[in-house]
Automatic annotation (TrEMBL):
Keyword annotations: FAD, Flavoprotein, Oxidoreductase
Family assignment from sequence similarity: Belongs to the oxygen-dependent FAD-linked oxidoreductase family.
Organism of this sequence: Piloderma croceum (strain F 1598)
GO MF assignments: FAD binding; oxidoreductase activity
Designated name of the protein: FAD-binding PCMH-type domain-containing protein
Family annotation (InterPro entries): BBE (IPR012951), FAD-bd_PCMH (IPR016166), FAD-bd_PCMH-like_sf (IPR036318), FAD-bd_PCMH_sub1 (IPR016167), FAD-bd_PCMH_sub2 (IPR016169), FAD-linked_Oxidoreductase (IPR050416), Oxid_FAD_bind_N (IPR006094)
Length: 444
């Protein structure tokens, strides 16, 4: 066994013989994403990462490398069976600039770390509604959040980044520095290097965030959809169903038809002062999340009532099974103009047609139900994709952050794939980044 302990690095190296600490470091949001690595390295300084890369790539055969940010992707992209995990957990500093227009965030930070610092300076950034999601995975694959209506995707709000390339070089990238790389990391996922620092655009903080959930009896599905369809005609860029409803004064008005016409049986909507608090609001729900969670997403051009009702029927039938009762389907409806404003070829993120994101959160506890949960998620997402094509004549793509991993690369990257393949050959010719949604290099 090669001696990783001989490396002079700041940080911790864990192996299966490290006991509880090793087991803890293997944990992921979903048990389905856990694989037993031979080594887990937790660097305390990013300058040590090239040494670790060189160790892994110089072995015969080279050791597989996986990079872990927040550990939330439900595919085992941040894990490795028998390989080496570079776990970015300790690289989590966050610094708000003096002029409060940008925030420097290390690649292993969670959104909670970011909000903690942002609220002190009364600024916001486009980030995930949940504190435990990693900044790295979220941004590199897209990034839908509460401020998307006004500011677009997380990746549209990156001003610059520092990346460690497969050959160990540490490069800064921005619209004017190594601009090909800057283009590729915004939508190309983990395929071009380890981002050890992002510089994110900041803006003055919203004074209040109102969010939460209202629960209706199942007999109200038709009425709920009618209200949603009416709300869609008038909603502003600051509102998203189900989670984000803008400022408190407007929120009361927005929530009125949902509360007073429909009469929810549970009303858990609240107004909180900042994104840090907002990112903790759903904590109670996550405590009971099934351990073998599988998220599969699809994007659709609209929320057509008959499509929703078909999914509803299938969901009702599927969740009859005891171990699958906690399976959810969420529909995120926000104003899509800002995302669609950016050209398809301006970043590697392809899905620029106006869309809503639908996510099947397949939830079971027993391994015996894995297959049926996966099949349910796939059947729903396939159905909606086909429905969208029928209705609009367009296939608007697949999102990397909710991908299953078996999709065609053309579906995820669309017309950006040829350029991504060329850049893969330039930045990772030996395929060091072999985990995740792998892009084949084009050496032509
Ligand atoms: C409960 C839940 C809620 C979610 N809600 C949202 C949401 O509201 N909006 C949204 O857009 N997405 C959402 N997601 C999807 C989420 O953005 C993706 O799963 C994302 O990939 C998670 O990133 P991570 O760093 O936490 O995960 P990881 O599993 O650690 O990483 C995911 C991928 O990114 C790579 N990666 C991570 N950090 C880096 C880095 N610094 N440099 C290079 N590669 C890196 C990893 O190698 C891996 O391939 C949600 C997911 C879950 C589980």
């Amino acid at each position: 066994m090669p001696d990783i302990f001989a490396l002079q690095i700041q940080g911790t190296v864990l192996t299966p013989s490290s006991g509880e600490e090793y087991k803890k470091a293997l944990r992921r949001y979903s048990d389905l994403a856990i694989l037993k690595a031979s080594y887990i390295v937790l660097p305390s300084a990013f300058s040590d990462i090239p040494t670790v890369l060189s160790f892994a790539t110089s072995q015969t055969p080279p050791i597989e490398i996986a990079v872990k940010g927040g550990g939330n992707h439900c595919s085992p992209w941040a894990s490795s069976e028998g390989g080496l995990i570079i776990d970015l957990t300790r690289l989590n500093y966050v610094v708000v600039s003096d002029d409060k227009r940008s925030v420097r965030v290390q690649g292993g930070a969670l959104w909670g770390d970011v909000y903690e610092e942002c609220q002190k300076f009364e600024v916001d950034v486009v980030g995930c509604p949940f504190w435990f999601i990693g900044v790295g995975g979220y941004i590199l694959g897209g990034g839908y959040g509460r401020f998307g209506g006004d500011h677009g995707l997380g990746l549209d709000n990156v001003l610059a980044a520092t990346v460690i390339l497969a050959d160990g070089r540490i490069v800064r990238t921005s619209p004017t520095e190594e601009s090909d790389l800057f283009w590729a990391i915004r939508g190309g996922g983990n395929q071009f290097g380890i981002v050890v620092e992002f510089v994110l655009k900041a803006f003055p903080a919203a004074q209040t965030v109102t969010l939460g959930s209202l629960t209706y009896p199942e007999t109200d599905i038709g009425n709920v959809l009618s209200v949603v369809q009416e709300w869609k005609k008038v909603h502003t860029t600051k509102e998203r169903v189900v989670l984000a409803f803008g400022n408190a004064a407007r929120a009361a008005k927005v929530l009125h038809p949902f509360r007073d016409t429909l009469k929810p049986i549970v009303d858990r909507s609240v107004s909180v002062p900042n994104m840090l608090a907002a990112s903790h609001v759903a904590d109670g729900n996550f405590e009971t999340t099934p351990s073998r969670m599988l998220l599969q997403g699809v994007i659709v051009s609209d929320i057509w009532t008959d499509m929703v009702l078909e999914v509803w029927d299938r969901w009702c039938e599927f969740t009859q099974k005891d171990d699958c009762k906690q399976t959810l389907v969420t529909w995120e409806i926000g104003r899509p103009e800002k995302i669609a404003e950016v050209g398809r070829a301006d970043t590697a993120f392809y899905a620029r047609d106006p869309h809503c994101v639908v996510v099947v959160h397949g939830g079971n506890r027993l391994p015996a139900s894995d297959e049926s949960t996966r099949a349910f998620g796939s059947s729903i997402t396939d159905y909606m994709r086909k429905y969208n094509i029928q209705k609009t004549g367009k296939d608007i793509g697949v999102l990397l952050n909710y991908a299953r991993g078996d999709e065609a690369p053309e579906d995820v990257f669309g017309t950006n794939l040829p350029r991504l393949r060329k850049l893969k050959a330039k930045y990772d010719p030996k395929g060091v980044w072999s985990k995740g949604f792998v892009i084949e290099p084009d050496f032509g």
